[in-house]
Design goal:
six-stranded parallel sheet, 12 strands, Rossmann fold, binds nicotinamide-adenine-dinucleotide, six-stranded mixed sheet
Length: 295
Amino acid sequence: MVETRLKPLKAGLIGSGIQASLTPAMHMQEGAAQGFAYDYALIDLTQRGLTPDSLPALLSQAEQQGLSGLNITHPCKQLVIPHLDELSDEARALGAVNTVVLKGGRRYGHNTDWWGFAESFRRGLPDADLKSAVQIGAGGAGVATAYAILSLGLKNLTVFDLDPERATHLAQSLSVLFPKATIEASGDLAVAMQSASGLIHATPTGMAKYPGMPLAPELLSARHWVAEIVYFPLETELLKTAKLRGSRVLNGGGMAVFQAVGAFSLFTGREPDAYRMMRHFDNLTSGSRPSKDLQ
Ligand code: NAD
């Protein structure tokens, strides 16, 4: 049944260089499928010639215009926090917010990135061995994936990053949050992969702008599962190679869809149909588009 609302529900995404984002289409198509009018706007700092300094003004504007919420992406996920009234436990633990709910004059910060990866992993690699894994990449997305895999029960995590300080900092902060797990930073990927049952890839390597592999192919074997977070292209060189070497693989599309599933439910107060959103996403990504500026 088509619901008649006088005013459409409104939301938006704030970030830099986000013109190619699939998030607005995922939200609006799900709203249409549920029979209500839903406007989801891109608030692209780059296109508007703005810097993150304009965040407070953009948040106030969104409230004045009656938006139900905002997704927040690079480079604003940490910077937005001082401008919020409340944080969910996970957003506080991660120190990053990708979803702000605007309600009754208050701003509530959430993080659906980690849940998006956890949900995608739970569905896509349901019986993965969670004894030990290596994660390459300790940047913004890597914080969320590491938090997710540890929440799913991983016992040993080794973090590797070209910037060793980032890896060490992530390992130390996660050790406080997950005291029962062993979490360390390592400079030797080859040694870490020998004892690992899985690999999480959380760097931009494999996107058109950053072609190639984040590790030597011979480090992958049939013993490993491989979870990728890059989703443009969906099948990265890492995933192609991992499949050829017999590993079980998960692409980055699920994380992108489920972060939107979580945000849709927070903005609208309605449960989205996750399978329908996945089908929408598959349709959106089935024609190959140039890979740039996707969040
Ligand atoms: P970021 O710049 O914050 O972090 C990337 C990290 O990777 C940095 O610490 C960098 O030093 C490290 N790095 C880069 N190349 C490396 C290599 N070859 N070996 C080891 N470390 C390396 O970036 P981010 O925000 O964490 O995003 C990373 C990727 O994740 C991007 O491609 C982004 O599009 C993707 N992403 C996907 C989703 C999704 O929903 N699937 C969500 C967020 C981000």
